[in-house]
Amino acid sequence: GAGVSQSPRYKVAKRGQDVALRCDPISGHVSLFWYQQALGQGPEFLTYFQNEAQLDKSGLPSDRFFAERPEGSVSTLKIQRTQQEDSAVYLCASSPKDTVSNQPQHFGDGTRLSIL
Amino acid sequence: DAKTTQPNSMESNEEEPVHLPCNHSTISGTDYIHWYRQLPSQGPEYVIHGLTSNVNNRMASLAIAEDRKSSTLILHRATLRDAAVYYCILRDGGRPTGGGNKLTFGTGTQLKVEL
Question: Which one of A35, B10, B25, B74 has the minimum C-beta count within 10 Å?
Answer without folding.
Answer: B25
